[in-house]
């Protein structure tokens, strides 16, 4: 079996490997040339030990073929999947770039450019979700600009499967890019279309402000930030930006998936102003004692009753059992978790057994530990209250949005998608570790 490092200069005597532009724990990324079709390509050559896993080979083939069948101008095209000397490889559309993470090094994007990014990204996600494909790793490094200026989504699902096949020691831990993972993913719950929309909201907020909404020195602190950070509404931070755009981004970042948009098409319609502006949804931390909704079975965004006006929670409401999966990585995470649980118990005793004051003001800080102050699911800024008539999104679609006249060669490379079959709503896809290949663009 050939070593990846000593890979032949031409795979199957067809795909020339001209320049290595990235490498990592899963394999190598090459700029290549298709001798048969006389065109530039990008090639991902996987490590032999991954190719040796029978279960991985089977699923990798299914998902790569599903990705290849997804023909959309805002998704990086997959041309071929094969193996050479025992190593699996993917052949994909080659794009000049840059990727969004490289673009954001220079600071935030103009609002109109962020709007175009939103339209392109949501158009690609809508097409993928309609095909029952969930990306699971939307982030700036997986958004690449084409020569014609169109943004494309790359790396559909393959990073997750590669990490699983590598038999990492952190089994079941949601690692990879925690700054863009939805709260339910950090709990180890299945990824759905709603988790993709959360990640899209994080990306768009970062593009508008130039800063990650959730950040930290390590994965544990990032996971803590996702759980406890209160994000001020973008309309307060950027009052001059189109409220259709800022309102859509804020709604995508609702903590409870049921309060996000039901589909990428619905969010796209909101960004483009084709639907009434969404009601304000406080962004970030949920109220104390608010468990995430069950993820097993049912639609991606389950219908739920409209939330009651702001007030004390029911006496029998359980305290949140949210335990970030990432905190199980180290003993330090267990110590932190234990300290938080002790603080929670002490706080409950000091409050007096759960008699919360409905008129009590929320803390003025921008971050907050779980406490007795009642807020609607997805609550964020203490100074704002979610309207009592706000209902979670359960229906509605939009078109896949504008796109160019075909795929254009662009910067990064994309790869296979995590496929599921089912009804018109994308089925939940079991989540797991995600370790993306490094971007070949720096």
TrEMBL record:
This is non-specific serine/threonine protein kinase. The chain crosses the membrane at residues 325-351. It comes from Iamia majanohamensis. The keyword RNA-binding does not apply. Residues 368-381 have a biased composition (Low complexity). Its EC number is 2.7.11.1. Residues 281-318, 355-442 are annotated as: Disordered. Keywords: ATP-binding, Kinase, Membrane, Nucleotide-binding, Serine/threonine-protein kinase, Transferase, Transmembrane, Transmembrane helix. It comes from the Bacteria. InterPro entries: Kinase-like_dom_sf, Prot_kinase_dom, Protein_kinase_ATP_BS. PROSITE patterns: PROTEIN_KINASE_ATP (PS00107), PROTEIN_KINASE_DOM (PS50011). ATP binds at residue 44. One of its GO terms (molecular function) is ATP binding. It catalyses: L-threonyl-[protein] + ATP = O-phospho-L-threonyl-[protein] + ADP + H(+); L-seryl-[protein] + ATP = O-phospho-L-seryl-[protein] + ADP + H(+). Signal peptide: none annotated. Gene3D superfamilies: Phosphorylase Kinase, domain 1, Transferase(Phosphotransferase) domain 1. Residues 15-271 form the Protein kinase domain. SMART domains: S_TKc. It is an enzyme of class 2 (transferase). The lineage of its organism: Bacteria, Bacillati, Actinomycetota, Acidimicrobiia, Acidimicrobiales. Residues 281-315, 433-442 have a biased composition (Pro residues).
């Amino acid at each position: 079996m050939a070593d990846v490092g000593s890979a032949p200069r031409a795979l199957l005597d067809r795909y020339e490997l001209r320049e290595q532009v990235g490498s990592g724990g899963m394999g190598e990324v090459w700029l290549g040339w298709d001798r048969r079709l006389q065109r530039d390509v990008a090639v991902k050559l996987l490590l032999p030990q991954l190719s040796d896993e029978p279960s991985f080979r089977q699923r990798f083939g299914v998902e790569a073929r599903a990705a290849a069948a997804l023909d959309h101008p805002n998704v990086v095209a997959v041309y071929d999947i094969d193996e050479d000397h025992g190593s699996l490889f993917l052949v994909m559309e080659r794009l000049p770039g840059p990727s969004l993470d490289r673009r954001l090094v220079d600071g935030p994007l103009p609002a109109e450019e962020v709007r175009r990014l939103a339209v392109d990204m949501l158009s690609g996600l809508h097409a993928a979700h309609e095909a029952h494909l969930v990306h699971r790793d939307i982030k700036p490094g997986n958004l690449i600009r084409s020569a014609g200026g169109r943004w494309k989504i790359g790396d559909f699902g393959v990073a997750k499967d590669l990490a699983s096949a590598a038999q990492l020691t952190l089994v079941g831990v949601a690692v990879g890019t925690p700054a863009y993972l939805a709260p339910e993913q950090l709990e180890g719950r299945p990824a759905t279309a709603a988790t993709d929309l959360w990640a899209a909201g994080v990306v768009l907020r970062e593009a508008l402000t130039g800063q990650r909404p959730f950040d930290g020195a390590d994965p544990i602190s990032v996971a803590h930030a996702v759980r406890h950070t209160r994000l001020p509404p973008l309309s307060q931070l950027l009052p001059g930006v189109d409220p259709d755009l800022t309102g859509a981004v804020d709604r995508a970042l609702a903590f409870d998936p049921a309060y996000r948009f039901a589909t990428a098409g619905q969010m796209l319609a909101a960004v483009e102003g084709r639907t009434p502006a969404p009601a304000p949804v406080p962004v970030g931390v949920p109220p104390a004692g608010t468990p995430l909704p069950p993820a097993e079975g049912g639609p991606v965004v389950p219908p739920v009753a409209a939330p009651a006006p702001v007030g004390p929670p029911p006496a029998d409401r359980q305290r949140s059992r949210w335990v970030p999966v990432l905190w199980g990585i180290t003993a330090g995470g267990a110590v932190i978790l234990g300290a938080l649980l002790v603080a929670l118990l002490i706080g409950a005793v000091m409050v007096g057994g759960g008699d919360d004051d409905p008129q009590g003001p929320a803390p003025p800080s921008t971050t907050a530990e779980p406490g007795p102050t009642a807020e609607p699911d997805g609550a964020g800024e203490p100074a704002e209250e979610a309207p009592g008539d706000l209902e979670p999104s359960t229906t509605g679609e939009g078109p896949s949005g504008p796109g160019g006249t075909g795929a254009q060669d662009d910067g990064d490379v994309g790869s296979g998608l995590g496929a599921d079959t089912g009804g018109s709503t994308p089925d939940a896809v079991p989540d797991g570790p995600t370790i993306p290949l490094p971007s070949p663009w720096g």
